[in-house]
Design brief:
The chain has 164 residues and is an alpha+beta fold. It starts with a helix and ends with a helix. It contains five helices and five strands. Helix content is 51%, strand content 23%. The radius of gyration is 20 Å and the shape is elongated. A hairpin with a 2-residue loop joins strand 4 and strand 5. It has a five-stranded antiparallel β-sheet with strand order 1-2-3-4-5.
Amino acid sequence: METETQRKIDETVRRILEESDMDQLTESKIRKQASQELALDLNKPPFKAFVNQVVESFLEEQQRKQEQQENDDESKPADDEGGQEREYDDNGDLVICRLSHKRKVTVQEFKGKPLVSLREFFTKEGKELPTSKGISLTEEQWSVFKKNIPAIEKAIQKMESRIN
């Protein structure tokens, strides 16, 4: 495969990845869109393998960036220690993090009890509103979930090793 072709494929695939909703994207969809844009059949073995390398490289870079951001965040003092401002949503709930442009994790109070909510949101008249898609966990449920994160990560790694 020519170097110029590789460069074009790399640029196109990376642009598609940067512009797309990562929750909805598959490598097959990336190859299909890039194939159309480049007028190349990227499902042929050498192209398919190269696209896979570009996607994996991109995902590794994103993971390193995220880890760096988390490390930077951990080194900053919390807002009650004079650090960064906390974000609150339109309902006054504390936003812990954004999982994607439509999903976020919040801590809210319901009937006097704290809940951890992982929920999808939509925008209406400039306000972010929660959908019914999501889950709210009590303190006890959150504690059980948190204790099982290592088992979840191990299962994901095992599954990924079977796929690759």
